[in-house]
Amino acid sequence: MNKILEVNNLSKDYNDATGFNVHLLEDISLEVTENSITTILAPAGAGKTSLLKILSGIESLTSGQIKINSENQRVVYIPSKPSSFPWYSVKQNISLVNRDDEKIKSIIELVGLEGYEDHFPDNNSVGFRFRISLARALAEEPGIIILDEPFGKEIKPVTLQRLYELLLSLKSKLGITFLLGTSNLSEAILLSDEIYLMQKEPGKIIDSVQISFDNERNVELMRSEKFIDYRNKIEELLKNQKEQSLSNITI
Amino acid sequence: MKLNSIQKKIILKNRFAFLSVLLFVYILLFEFILPVNKILPKPSLLLDSIPVLFSEYNLLSEMAITTSIIYLAIAIGFLFVWMLSFSLATIVNRNIGLFNNLRLFKNFPAFFFAILFAFWFDGSVFAELLFTTIVSTFFISISFMNSAITLPTEYKDAAKSLMIEKKEFHNNITWKYSLPKMFDELHRLHYYLWVLVLIFEFVSALNGFGSIYKLALNYNDLSVIILLGIIIALLIWLGNSIIDFIEKKLIFWKA
């Protein structure tokens, strides 16, 4: 498979408000394969968001190299908090990026928002707002979509399950490449083809695990033996690291 | 806190009852028990003063001057801030220190500026409009910058990632995000301008409601002073209702 994104020895330092130099990310190397979901599994405060923002060109790096091996070099970042604009309808949110009506219509169908074209994002509906953000990202026709803790903690289990299915179907039907940042281990195993484990202080990749299932991916897999094996394996890897640096990962 | 329609109806009903009681007590006390006093005029005298207010004090033309100046100043101020908003947002993002310094002017009382302007311009209608527009533009600019500075990072990141151009980002995101907070502040500006304009007109004693007050004070005409107070209160209430109506129609989202 084609390596669409290669990151070599990426580091990030910055000065905080008191002028103290913070060594946030150290020597990060990873690869993202085309038409896959690659996950960075890290505890809160490890610098996951900064890493994802650097990879999408929003923030700068201190040293290292980022290489995109694709004709389509567009990388779109979807922040962890809802970023759809509440003053625009679903359709207007997407048309900020792409004004082609036919394209907008097909994207709306793709993310399951048909019938809601003229609805406005409700502040309380995380799932609805995530679909709009995803639709907006798809309208850009990017090479990679980066998702930073996309589902949060306030989302209902049923909605969460539907969003997992949406991501998996976008990957399998349209061949979209996703890079996901999360602290939820079960979510990472269910969705990913490869998981990079990241520690904090400084943020550093400590290991990676390839994930593959014989059956089609859906939430039922979470009860399978193979899923539990993966979970045990990753937990074991995490235990071998400094306890405090990975303590916030949700099992 | 936004109230639902039932809560609003209850509040309105309570206010109406309260005003009715006040009116009843006023009529009873000052028409029948204490008809001659130096506190408040007899209700019948108040009614007799209404035609005087129109004929002797030129109520309609003075009202036209005061209200036009206040609402024109708000409209022009809003238009100016809309036109300048891109530069204002750039200033506030680049130079937070300057923005904080500008905020100091909000602590000066309206009275001070009114006196100063009356002193400089000798109280012409044009000077009054100019002065009120400057104050309104400044006030709305500050409330826009206050709001723009709190634009959530996720909006900025999403726009940056989607390569939305600076100007488009400003018009579609920063400006729209700031509108609800700016409208909330508009109520405060509305009261502020009424006080400011009344003081200005009272000091310069040439035009508007303020000049009627000055004249009524010179004539010791308590009925007119009271009547004018009631009319101004009604006009402020009407102005607030119009601002609420526009807000409800145009700004349906929360910041």
From TrEMBL, chain B:
Transport listed as a keyword: yes
InterPro entries reported for this sequence: MetI-like, MetI-like_sf
Recorded topology in the membrane: Multi-pass membrane protein
Keyword annotations: Cell membrane, Membrane, Transmembrane, Transmembrane helix, Transport
ABC transmembrane type-1 domain mapped to chain residues: 104-247
Signal sequence extent: none
Localization, UniProt: Cell membrane
Transmembrane regions: 16-36, 69-92, 104-123, 129-151, 191-213, 225-246
One of the GO biological process terms: transmembrane transport
Primary location group: membrane
GO cellular component, one term: plasma membrane
Protein name as it appears in the record: ABC transmembrane type-1 domain-containing protein
Organism: hydrocarbon metagenome
